[in-house]
Design goal:
A hairpin with a 2-residue loop joins strand 6 and strand 7. This protein is about 35% helix and about 15% strand. It is globular, with a radius of gyration of 21 Å. The longest helix has 20 residues. By secondary structure, the chain is α/β, with parallel strands linked by helices. It has 2 domains: about 220 residues, 3-Layer(aba) Sandwich (Aspartate Aminotransferase, domain 2), CATH 3.40.640; about 120 residues, Aspartate Aminotransferase, domain 1 (Alpha-Beta Complex). The strands form 3 sheets. It has a 7-stranded mixed sheet with strand order 1-9-8-5-4-2-3, with helices on both faces. It binds pyridoxal-5'-phosphate.
Length: about 375
């Protein structure tokens, strides 16, 4: 818990404190209040969407999206094998099956070339995940979705403000979902949001979020809904965070530029930014691509012993017990073995980064030559 340099630390200052005090003093501490309305409006505006529906977390946002689109038992949803497990779990929550696709070796998100071979007559949706802050290659995904009449649900949990060909993520799919967990680009502690341009889906998401209660007849329920509401206290934090989101993203990109500069020329693989992409570097992710006896674990342990926290990449979901497959996903498997997320919080100083890089080079080189 107590690293000298944590992997991702939220930047909370006076504005968050003032907003929370205002929310508490107003008496609106559950899921009504001005901060929720403002956060929904302003975050939708930030991401160029018409409607925002705030939720209790990012997983709830994804689950609501699938419910609102009537994804049903037996349906299939295409997702990348390399993502956080929530992307697959929500598909299971509605009784559907996640169908996995390998990652693209150049930018680590779902490989559009490998999607069509996975489409069956049961496929209903594609869920591209903008991994570690880099957007997916959306044009071919949009083309495939159109050709086969599939929904796109973007999982933008790691990529607030990332851009594909100059357009922000969260504006490509029919419903797109964000997380505001403590380590995400902006946070509400726990929280999330669905974005959509469709007024009917927006209304459906609101109803499903609130126990399925009719919006004009109290205690009338046409459907079985959920309690997936965000509190006004969380939204109060989120609104303060949102006022700084452009600064946070610029800081993330600055951190990445400095890491890139200091690591240039080393044999480590540095995080991608394709010509069509604006990466927001949610995490500064490297590949420790040594074939030597001492690998990513050795480097991570060395950094850990120096008080520097890191995170390995996710496991491909297809090696985990609930989703185990015998089929190989070679790109996802390689990324997962070699990937390491370095400290990436917006509070990092230049001195911190210089220190991280010097330790990183030390252990990496020791690993190579031992
Ligand atoms: C964080 C994350 C989620 C889930 O968000 P929570 O707010 O933690 O529920 C979903 N998908 C991806 C890719 C994530 O990184």
């Amino acid at each position: 818990m107590n690293f000298k340099i944590p992997v991702a630390e939220p930047d909370i200052d006076q504005e968050e404190l003032n907003n929370v005090i205002e929310a508490l003093k107003s008496g609106w501490i559950s899921s009504k209040g001005r901060f929720i309305i403002d956060l929904e409006e302003q975050f939708a505006h930030f991401s160029n969407a018409k409607f925002g529906i705030a939720t209790s977390n990012g997983t709830a946002a994804l689950h609501l999206a699938l419910e609102a689109l009537d994804i049903k038992p037996g349906d299939e949803v295409i997702i990348p094998s390399l993502t956080f497990i929530a992307s697959a779990n929500v598909v299971k929550y509605v009784g559907a099956h996640p169908v996995f696709v390998d990652s693209h070796p150049d930018y680590w998100c779902i490989d559009p070339e490998k999607i069509e071979e996975k489409i069956t007559d049961k496929t209903r949706a594609i869920m591209p995940v903008h991994l570690y802050g880099h957007p997916c290659d959306m044009d071919p995904i949009l083309r495939i979705a159109k050709k086969h009449n599939l929904f796109i649900i973007e999982d933008c949990a790691e990529a607030h403000g990332a851009e594909y060909r100059g357009k922000k993520v969260g504006s490509f799919g029919i419903i797109n979902c964000f997380s505001f967990y403590g380590n995400k680009i902006i946070t509400t502690g726990e929280g999330g949001m669905c974005l959509t341009d469709d007024p009917d889906l927006s209304e459906k998401l609101r109803v499903l979020r609130d126990h399925g209660m009719s919006s004009n007849k109290r205690y009338w329920h046409d459907v079985i809904g959920f309690n997936y509401r965000m509190t006004n206290i969380q939204a109060a934090i989120g609104l303060a965070q949102l006022s700084k989101i452009d600064l946070f993203i610029e800081k993330k990109r600055q951190i990445a530029r400095l890491y890139n500069k200091l690591l240039q020329g080393s044999a480590l693989e540095l995080p991608p930014e394709m010509s069509w992409a604006k990466n927001v570097y949610w995490m500064y992710s490297i590949l420790v691509n040594s074939d030597g006896p001492l690998n990513r674990e050795y480097v991570a342990k060395g950094l850990c012993d120096s008080g520097i926290d890191t995170r390995p990449f996710f496991y491909p979901l297809t090696v985990l017990p609930p989703y185990k497959e015998t089929v190989a996903y070679p790109v996802a498997e390689r990324l997962s073995c070699q990937g390491l997320n370095l400290p990436s919080g917006v509070k990092l100083s230049t001195e911190n980064i210089v220190e991280i890089v010097s330790k990183l080079k030390l252990y990496y080189n020791l690993g190579i030559y031992v």
